[in-house]
Amino acid sequence: MEAIFTRWPNVIVQFEDFQSKWAFKLLQRYRYKYRMFNDDVQGTAGVAVAGLLGAVRAQGRSMIDFPKQKIVVAGAGSAGLGVLNAARKTMARMLGNNESAFDSARSQFWVVDAKGLITEDRENIDPDAKPFARKVNEISRQGLWEGASLVEVVQQVKPDVLLGLSAVGGLFSKEVLEAMRGSTSTRPAIFAMSNPTNNAECTPEEAFSIVGDNIIFASGSPFKDVDLGNGHIGHCNQGNNMYLFPGVGLGTLLSGSRIISDGMLQAAAECLAEYMTEEEVVKGKIYPSISSIRNITKEVAAAVVKEALEEDLAEGYRGVDARELQRFNQEELLEFVELNMWHPEYPTLVYRNE
After folding, report:
1. Buried b (16+ CB within 10 A) or exposed e, 7-29
2. CA nearest to 160, candidates 279, 43, 278, 54
3. Cβ atoms 265, 27 nearer than 8 A
4. What domain of life does the UniProt record list for this protein's source (predicted)?
5. What pTM was computed for the model?
6. E strands, 187-231, where?
7. CB burial readout 340-350, b (16+ within 10 A) else e
8. How far apart are the C-alpha atoms of 23 and 77, rounded to whole Å?
9. Rounded to 5 degrees, what angle do the CA atoms 345, 348, 349 make?
10. Alpha carbon 183 to chain centroid distance?
11. Residue 233, beta-bridge partner list
């Protein structure tokens, strides 16, 4: 990292495919010193949070109601924990961004790994998963226990969202999906986000046929939409990291920020969540078409620049200093972003741990 930033002081480094135990350590080691991010942890998290916010909109509610969502998460690797941390921070931000807000947000998640429900009774618990371990007195009142299975957790919690980041194909079995019928949500959401296709926790056909036509479905891999009959379509929304990382990189570059903050990443996720129209969201579409990627990147980059300015991190770019950026209205900011999309001055390097 020292060598790269000595040679290219304005580069943005993207980490990819590191094991969970290294992903978080390296992210924490470097994120406040260099312009870098980890796409598996932060990119996946941002796209998932955008989808979760979109699912709230699809229920006919405002995104500000996100902190009321009950979310069961299957998987506690780097991707799962990245999504958990980002979703918790988004909830806490909506609740006031103080200690009680973070504690309140924590209580909305139930995390299940290969050993079952994670609680404070778990031996040798992963330090990164510990903030999400359920308190024993809480879960006993819910009829749950340390190591409870995924189907048992879904039956008792009746979640609004079932979020899969386990890399275990077929984990959302018929029994798990049948348990989702008991969701207290008017429109439950099922996110089978693991890649590649054979690692997806379930298929859209399984989800729509077992849980019902009214669900929101998202996946990490591409699936075809489902014909539900009578002219109705079950939309399969692919949560591709491509929606965010180009805009995050471009926005960071154009703002001149020396780091990529949580706020900048959250602004990117919220921008993506707001990109869809009300009409599209009501139909169950929570992610846009990949064919719109250039416009999405422009909008996300502008949101990242605005947040960098808000946090006083922006230093400007190519003779446009932070004060001038601050004076731009939304239309002028989008024009500035679009102009510079075609003239990248600095490369983006990718660390890929093969």
Report:
1. eeeebbbbbbebebeebbebbee
2. 54
3. no
4. Eukaryota
5. 0.88
6. 189-192, 216-219, 226-229
7. bbeeeeeebee
8. 10
9. 140
10. 22
11. 227
Token pair in block for residue 108: 């909305």
**CA 308 distance to own-chain centroid:** 20
Q: Which two tokens stand for residue 247?
A: 């805009």
Cis ω on the peptide bond leading into residue 344 (within 30° of 0)?
Answer: no
The strand ranges marked E within the chain are 12-16, 36-38, 71-74, 109-113, 116-117, 161-164, 189-192, 216-219, 226-229, 232-234, 236-238, 348-352
